[in-house]
Amino acid sequence: MRRLVVAAAAIVAFFATTAAPGHASLPTNPPPDKIVIDIATVNGSGCPAGTAAVAVSPDNTAFTVTYSDYLAQVGVGASSTDFRKNCQLNLAVHVPQGFTYAIAEADYRGFAHLEKGASGVEKANYYFQGHSQTTAISHTLNGAYDDNWQNTDTTDVAQLVYLPCGESRNFNINTELRVSAGTSDPTKTTSFMAMDSTDGSITTTYHWAWKTCP
Fold first, then answer.
1. Is the dihedral angle over the CA atoms 173, 179, 180, 183 positive or is it negative?
2. pLDDT tens across 104-125, in order?
């Protein structure tokens, strides 16, 4: 099977419990000082060691996690464990004094080839270390399908979950891609779902919501 490589980007959100139908203007005035993010740990079949990197936008309004391999597939050419790929990132976010943050909005994009009867799922949740995990938000794509896909989540300003002022807690990001053969024939076909870009990497951009601390 020829692996299809397409443009994709994901803008991911932090939800308290469930996605809200819309949001007001997000409080995004960034701190003037530089934000530093270190990857404390990275685990998962979708992000083997050395395949994830983090960069902060120059204006401190977003940060990007880039992966070099994140593809779930079933059928011809796939192993028995390829149907599910996941990644858990534990990030140390060094925020300037007097500020705290939440993650505000999500827009996932990728590409999928799903045979008739097959399906794919994209799922994610986020939490500060020591705090309860958010409810995982998932989206299902049903075959037959052979095109780019996009999922959008938003949350209301009142539901944003901020890191408590004065606390230093790592930020955890859990993502997952899963493909099921369903009623398709995996002995003759291949179905896959990916977040992929033209250079073979996956780029996930997280948009901040900032507020000042007392």
1. positive
2. 776 677 889 999 999 999 998 8
